[in-house]
Amino acid sequence: MRTGILRSASPLPGFGLSFGIMMTVLSIVVLLPIAALLGRGLTIGPADLWEMVNSQRIRSALLLSFRAALIASLFNLVFGLVLAWVLVRYRFWGRRLIDAAIDLPFALPTAVAGIALTALYAPNGVFGQLLAPFNIKIAYTEIGIWLALIFIGLPFVVRTVQPVIEELDREIEEASATLGARRIYTLYRVILPTLTPALLTGFALALARSVGEYGSVIFIAGNLPLQTEIAPLLIVIRLEEYNYDAATAIGLAMLLISFAMLLAINAIQIWSRRRMGDV
Amino acid sequence: MIRTIAISSQLLAQGTFVRDLVGGHIEIDTGGRRLSGKPVASRKDTRVSPVRAAFSARHLRAGLLSTIAAIGLAVSGVPAAHAQESVEILNVSYDPTRELYRAYNELFNEWWTEQGNEPVTLRQSHGGSGGQARSVIDGLEAQVATLALSADIDVIAENTGKIPDDWQSRLPHNSSPYTSTIVFLVRDGNPKGIEDWDDLVAEDVQVITPNPKTSGGARWNFLAGWGWALKEFGGDEKKAQDYVAALYGNVPVLDTGARGSTNTFVQRGMGDVLLAWENEAFLALEEQGEDAFDIVVPSISILAEPPVALIDGNIKSDAQREAAEAYLEHLYSPEAQALALKNFYRAWDTSAASEEDIARFPEVELLSIEDFGGWAEVQPTFFADGGIFDQIYEGQ
Predict the structure, then answer these.
(1) What is the model's pTM?
(2) Does B385 contact A226 at a Cβ distance shorter than 8 Å?
(3) pLDDT tens digit string along A100-110?
(4) What ipTM does the predicted assembly reach?
(5) Residue B256 and residue A223: Cβ atoms within 8 Å?
(6) What string of DSSP letters covers B118-181?
């Protein structure tokens, strides 16, 4: 009689096969590329890696990438929640259309999104023209980068929060009201805590997606060194110089920072779960 | 495989197929219990309308497959019967040559079949010159490279050994069948009065040029400005560096490629002057109309030599070598040279070109890359990590 070590007693058949498929695909698609990046980093050595990352230009690019991703994701956190709330709780004409349109940023090639946003917000574009007299520039500034990142990150928040709002029991809200809570109080103490884990997941997904975004940002950013040059572009520039080591260094730096951020978000998530109980 | 069996005339059961039994019966596993009976052929649902039947999954799949196959055939552009014996050549080129090579590939195949050869399948790939070189280094099976500057082909030779070091002497004119130069494209009527390089550093002028790190064409732009400044300031490199720093200080958008910059200037209306390949400038005029822009030729510019090379290491057969060599050599024929002139490149042989195409090009004093010490010296000094281009930004 043989029982696998990894296998726990389960009435469900097919563990071996599905586990094998899962590991193979995961290795080919996710683990191997990351291992290759880490492996290349190891051959360079930490001292040289630090040397290559520790310049003003790379620091400002990394700062810009993470700052813009954070701002865009925070915006999406608030706006995505409102959007999901409206879509679930109210019935109005065109609701289904808007609901379908939320997924558009998933489907649209990011370059198309970038070019379209640039065309709209460039000084001669439809919106850009309206803003130009007030001396507000959007395309080719950091605000343009935020805009592109908000566009690509929005569906992550909406699509993670939406099902949780659908599951929310309205009777709890009613109970809160009958016990004398005002609307704001119900929102803060009853609704938001229930949504927090889903919101954090959506936020983390949007953030992770925005940090590495290249295709759409490149068209709207302006790409000026020290001002609007994002870290992924610097990686491309290093590759154009055939400087694979320096590109690896920036890639590793981004990986590390992203990892730390996701870890922090997960920690907050666990903390909020413990506080609220499993939701 | 899931099968359905009839247990009685009324009762059907479904489960995973286990084995065949005698008399056409089969045994199935229904999740714990094994049952046997006569297999039921998948029932035809007679209520399905013909329209729905036409859109049934099977029809749809078949239709989809044949559509994909048809598209595939159309894209490859070869009759299926010829696919195996036909010689294929992939030409990796840089951004602005799309129109030129689209026309040249037709011209070449016409000439090539006239010589009694089978037509060649010519495929094109365009992109930033540096990126294209990197694709070849990373394993893109291209037989011919036609890039923006010889440094990019040198890099392929260095990193892969697929091109001999002396490649540039294998064809006439430094392996550059056509050349170009850098000019200024300004808005109609030249409202900012831009005449020469010193006007580009005026306070209220915005200059559009791509990033020399990612664009081959932009390196020519940079060097042309640098060359002018060196001459203007009597060889003072410090002053030349201040000049290019001021010039790039006026650049609001640094695109990654020459086409990107042209779009930013032409479509988005950014900037007052575009530093452009002469051929790109003429192309923009042709596409946007003569009254949208003016071309300004500066007092000094640079002779930009976009070279071509055979990538020997990627040649699979003698037939392919023969065709690829002919493909490059034929670029120097009078007809191909006339075609290059027609596509706004400065070509060497004007014998077959029309008067109009020749007269288009103004006389201008041209520096050559040799005046700067050749690409082997220019590349590390100016454009490597920490080179002069990086210094003008990091010194700010």
Answers:
(1) 0.73
(2) no
(3) 999 988 888 98
(4) 0.72
(5) yes
(6) PPPEEEEEEE-HHHHHHHHHTT---SEEE-S-HHHHHHHHHHH--S-TTGGGSSHHHH-SEEB-
